[in-house]
Design a protein that fits this description.
mainly beta, 1 helix
């Protein structure tokens, strides 16, 4: 007796289970799962790739990523490339991401955000924006470039380049930096802000306005 052909939905389900098992096997030391409306891929040697489309989601240890499209590549699925309404969260540290595109290296634990990008450090009550953001999860250092804006309480920092050291709660600004604290304004070639105390240290061509 000839068995009926599998439906498309059932075939996709079996395919998804197979890929999910494969991903877990390749990265045994890490919890790595995914889901999406559609999936395609290739396991050809040297060209391993998994493409998730439509409500795509990937979880790698404490990092959760969502996007319209997610591409997974490399040995042990090392590289994750997210595009379209990208949202992410480092759950343990309570750091949120939003971007047009996000690329993540699971081995180095470095995330690179491109386009209209936002990073929110909820524990330290900081929101920062830029056109390019590189977040190093191991070092807890974030680099911001182009049109940088950082907001904390009643303080606003602007520059073209900034480095945020989360452990030390320090922010280094360069490239026409300016800091606004309530009605006060500070400008210099380089500005360092202690985000714990809100103290401002300035170097080179220092100027400012303080309103009593």
């Amino acid at each position: 007796m000839k068995m009926p052909a599998l439906t498309n939905n059932f075939s996709r389900t079996l395919c998804a289970i197979f890929f999910l098992f494969a991903v877990r096997s390749f990265a045994a030391a890490d919890i790595f799962t995914f889901k999406a409306d559609k999936m395609s891929g290739s396991k050809a040697l040297g060209r391993e790739v998994t493409i998730l489309a439509g409500n795509a989601e990937v979880r790698s240890d404490n990092l959760l990523l969502r996007a319209e499209r997610i591409e997974i590549q490399g040995d042990d699925n090392q590289f994750i490339d997210c595009t379209g309404s990208v949202w992410g969260m480092e759950e343990e540290k309570e750091i949120l991401f939003q971007a047009d595109r996000l690329r993540y290296d699971r081995t180095l634990k470095i995330a690179r955000l491109e386009g209209n990008s936002t990073l929110e450090d909820k524990k330290n009550e900081i929101v920062a924006r830029g056109r390019f953001i590189e977040y190093d999860d191991n070092a807890e250092v974030t680099v911001f470039q182009i049109g940088v804006r950082l907001f904390k309480d009643d303080m606003v920092c602007r520059s073209e380049y900034a480095v945020y050291r989360r452990t030390e709660k320090l922010l280094d600004l360069s490239g026409f930096p300016v800091v606004f604290k309530k009605d006060d304004e500070f400008r210099a070639d380089r500005i360092r802000v202690d985000l714990d105390t809100d103290d401002v240290t300035m170097e080179g061509a220092v100027s400012g306005t303080i309103k009593n």
